[in-house]
Design goal:
heterodimer, A: alpha+beta, Ubiquitin-like (UB roll), Fumarate Reductase Iron-sulfur Protein, Chain B, domain 2, 2 domains, five-stranded mixed β-sheet, two-stranded antiparallel ribbon, 9 helices, 7 strands, about 35% helix, about 15% strand, B: mainly alpha, 3 helical TM bundles of succinate and fumarate reductases, globular
């Protein structure tokens, strides 16, 4: 295994707090191994900043194995960077070349306000989930056998695919309209496809879409950027399904 | 109209309506390539049939204005949804130019329609209602040809139809997605059909404009 290192220029968005105006600042960094993940590179960068007595850059991270949805970052103009089907923690430095300048910005959306540097507030997603992204069944103590309700394999697979959405917000960050349709449609679909979810399907889609609009996300114009940049490969099929679910619910509304 | 999805569905429905209108418009115009008499009689029928004049024409104007105003409103909302723009946004990595610039191609079509309305609709209204001239079922072909004498007008028409083509390249398949029609088997076919529609309809309009320019100048 070769062990190439590279020297880079990082242009990082620095913002003291939510109220301050931020700006991009340039920093040179050297000796970065191509085997590092992007976040490991950021760790090295922050250690250097701390040693030099500077304020480290704030960025979100947690599991570092691509399943928690915490890490974000718009890297060279793409959510989670230039690789496909990966989160920032899974992005490797070998995707870049020695001498590159890498622009690192927070996910930008009015509904994702910047808290500090590269950290954004994504609780708007939580509020959308609270509006209907659940099934109201008591599961404590009287859980039924899962096989008591037969589910077609295709539906189960599609529901599972939708449920792999980690709620990272890359869809919003990538969309030119900062639309949250891919996220919301995945959360609607994972229930709409299953018998347990059908009971509350009508209220769910209406309430979640309503909350999505209240949060100030943009309108979907079917550019498809969300699907391409989604680290979990959530399909536009889900958006079409949500549009159908919405139409059904709106027509039947009391 | 209250939610983003309702607006998007209405945008698609008005788009379907306008695409259907374009199809009948191009069909009638194409008659001018085959037969002067047929073109004149069909144009006369469309110009004086009361159902077309007093019901379908206002519906068309409403459908067009709705699509236009809703498009502008959605663009305004979408801009508001990202109050701070990216310093660097590589949107070309994940979407095509047509899908991102519907507002630009739409505005170019709107500007063209200003000229197009002045060229045909205003003159037609003037003929029928202002000057109240008598019906003349043979005037249309000649009027059409006169419009395309000026090479600059032909050039503006050709460029505008290219913008129309770019608008339709995204609009056709996008409208189906908006109303929830998406299917593993049929969507790829539908996208091909959309591309064919987006190329053939504007191309036919271009051929008609250029044909009359050449035929009238010789």
């Amino acid at each position: 295994m070769s062990d190439k290192t590279m020297n880079l220029t990082l242009k990082i968005w620095r913002q003291k707090d939510a109220k301050s105006a931020g700006k991009l600042e340039s920093y040179p960094i050297s000796g970065i191994s191509e085997h590092m993940s992007f976040l490991e590179m950021m760790d090295v960068f922050n250690e250097q900043q701390i040693s030099a007595g500077n304020e480290p850059v704030a960025f979100d991270h947690d599991c570092r194995e691509g399943i928690c949805g915490s890490c974000s970052l718009q890297i060279n103009g793409e959510a989670h960077g230039p690789d496909r089907r990966v989160t920032t923690c899974q992005l490797h430095m070998r995707m870049f070349k020695d001498g590159d300048t890498i622009t690192i910005e927070p996910f930008r959306a009015t509904a994702f306000p910047v808290i500090k540097d590269l950290v954004v507030d994504r609780t708007s997603f939580d509020r959308i989930q609270h509006a209907g992204g659940f099934v109201s069944v008591n599961t404590s103590g009287n859980t039924q056998d899962a096989n008591s309700l037969p589910v077609p394999k295709v539906d189960a697979d599609n529901a599972f695919d939708a449920a792999t959405c980690i709620g990272c917000g890359a869809c919003v960050a990538s969309c030119k309209n900062a639309s949250a349709m891919l996220f919301v449609s995945a959360k609607v679909s994972q229930f709409a496809l299953l018998p347990q979810g059908k009971v509350e399907a009508k209220d769910r889609v209406l309430n979640m879409v309503n909350q999505m609009d209240l949060e100030g996300f943009g309108n979907c114009t079917n550019t498809g950027a969300c699907e391409v940049e989604c680290p979990k490969g959530i399909s536009l099929d889900n958006i079409a399904r949500m549009n159908r679910e919405y139409m059904k619910a709106a027509i039947k509304k009391d | 109209m209250k939610t983003s999805i309702a607006r998007k569905i209405l945008m698609a429905l008005s788009g379907f309506f306008l695409m259907f209108f374009l199809l009948q418009h191009v069909t009638i115009n194409s008659l001018s390539l085959c037969s002067e008499d047929t073109f004149n009689s069909v144009s006369h029928f469309f110009g004086y049939n009361p159902i077309i004049q007093y019901i379908l024409q206002p519906v068309l104007i409403f459908g067009f204005l709705f699509h236009l105003i809703m498009g502008m409103y959605l663009e305004y909302q979408n801009n508001k949804a990202r109050n701070k723009k990216y310093a660097k946004h590589n949107s070309a990595a994940s979407s095509n130019w047509m899908s991102r610039n519907m507002i630009i191609t739409g505005i170019m079509i709107l500007l063209f329609l200003g000229l197009h309305f002045y060229d045909f609709w205003v003159q037609e209204m003037n003929y029928k209602y202002v000057e109240a001239l008598p019906e003349n079922p043979t005037r249309y072909y000649h009027e059409l040809q006169l419009k395309f004498v000026d090479v600059w007008r032909v050039a503006i028409y050709v460029v505008s139809f290219i913008f129309l083509s770019l608008h339709l390249m995204h609009g056709f398949q996008s409208a189906f997605q908006s109303v929830g029609f998406r299917h593993n088997k049929y969507t790829p076919l539908l996208k091909k059909l959309g591309t064919a529609y987006a190329i053939l309809v504007p191309l036919m309009f271009i051929i008609i404009a250029v044909y009359h320019h050449i035929s009238v100048s010789h």
